[in-house]
Structures are given as C-alpha cells and as structure tokens.
Amino acid sequence: MSYGKRAFFAYGVDQQGQAGWFANVPSKKPLTVGQARAIGGDEWLRILRELYAQDRTAAPEILRHVRPADLVIVGALEDLPTVPTWSRGAMVLVGDSAHATSPSSGQGASIAVESAIQLARCLRDLPTAEAAFGAYERLRRARVERIIAGGARTSSEKAAGPVARVFRDLTMPTVMKLMAKPERMAWQVDYRIDFDAPVDESAILPTR
After folding, report:
1. Would you say 30 and 155 are in contact if contact means Cβ atoms under 8 Å apart?
2. By the 8 A CB rule, do 102 and 88 touch?
3. How buried is residue 11: exposed, middle or buried, by Cβ count under 10 Å (0-12/13-18/19+)?
4. Which of 159, 158, 148, 150 minimizes the C-alpha distance to 179?
C-alpha cells in the first residue's frame, strides 16, 4: 500500500506477475454507484493515471497496463452510523447490518463471523431469545465499535489534507514499527472465543 501525494493506492502481485489493486479517489461530493459508472472506464483511467502520475510508487506503472474494461467501478464508501439496538422481538442483527466497518479495517468478515459465534453461544445457553440477544450485544458492542473507529481513522488518513499529510508521512515509520509488534495488534487479530464455555449472563456488563 502507498499513500501518494493525492490519493491512496494498494496492490498485490501473484506468482505469475499479475497485479490486483484498488484506489481510493478523494471527492468533494460522494458519488453513487450509478454516477461513478456513468463516468466510464476510459475517463476513470485517465483520472487515475493523472492522479498518481507524480508518485514514486508502483501505481503509475500498474495503471499504464490497465484497460478500461478491467476496471471495477464502485461508488463512495460510507460508514454506517452506530446502530442503537441490535434486536427487537424475534429479530436480531448480525454482521454488517449491526456493525459495518470501513474496508480500511480489513476486519468486516472476521467480526461478522465472531458475532455469529457469540450469538450461537447465547442462544444455546440462555433461556429466552430476549436474554440471548441482550447478552450477545453486550458481548460484542465494545469490540466492534473499537474496530469501526480504527477503520474510520485509517480512511481519513488516506484522504489527508496538505498539513495532515506531512504529519502522517513523518510519523508513519514510527507507527509501522509499533504495528509490527504482534502484541500491539493482538487484541484485534488474535481474538479467541471459547465456544464450549457456557455464557453466564450475570457476568456480562451492560453495553452502556
């Protein structure tokens, strides 16, 4: 991944030398999927090549080999506001419907699976759906909202202004060294759920 002068670009190269990539293009006004696709592949490719032309990264070279038909064009990425209640009656929310996080977090699918497992435990061990849904939310909310906040910070850093960009670039080496220490990110990536352990509703603190 690279923080260019004007936009963020990330890519990966497989063993055959084929590159997969994505770009976060800043915009003063969010575009819907329809509006973004109406611009067309040829014009988007021109915009992207101009956007990254002055960056000393792999972006200009990768984009030089891209054809307009290869582009997968999507609209603006938006954060879902905090959902105040995850359940009502016999209905309960799981995954993105309850806690959608920015793709920048890289954790959307992971926390959806975690939530499904915790919900299954609560339904298994607690006497009513109401008790199970409440316990499930209390078990999950603090963790997922911390991850969501981290993803939002990462997204904002990708579209930093001139002053913020200088600060980001100066501090990035130190931040990356800290992130390289496994213990710094263990709370997020080494999270474990003991599925066989019974859920004790009395030991679960209220969400708020």
Report:
1. no
2. no
3. middle
4. 150
Please report the DSSP string for 108-170 in residue order.
Answer: HHHHHHHHHHHHHHHHHHSSSHHHHHHHHHHHHHHHHHHHHHHHHHHHHHHT--HHHHHHHHH
Can you read off the two tokens belonging to residue 187?
Answer: 């709370």
> Are residues 10 and 55 in contact, defined by beta-carbon separation less than 8 angstroms?
no
CA dist., res. 60 & res. 48, Å (int) = 9
- Does residue 44 sit in helix, strand or coil? helix
Rounded to whole angstroms, how far apart are CA atoms 35 and 15? 36
What is the per-residue pLDDT across 100-159, written as a single tens digit (0 to 9) for each?
A: 887 767 788 899 999 999 999 999 999 999 999 999 999 999 999 998 888 777 666 555
Question: What SS3 class is residue 93?
Answer: coil
Task: Please tell me the predicted confidence (pLDDT) of residue 6.
Answer: 85
Neighbouring CB atoms inside 10 A of 205's CB total 8
Instruction: Assign 60 to helix, strand or coil.
Output: helix
Structure-token pair, residue 163: 């002053």
Q: Distance (Å, rounded) from C-alpha 127 to C-alpha 134?
A: 12
DSSP 8-state code for residue 71: -
In this structure, what token pair is assigned to residue 58?
Answer: 């792999």
Strands 8-13 and 19-24: antiparallel
Distance CA 57, CA 52 (A): 8
8 Å CB contact between 62 and 2: no
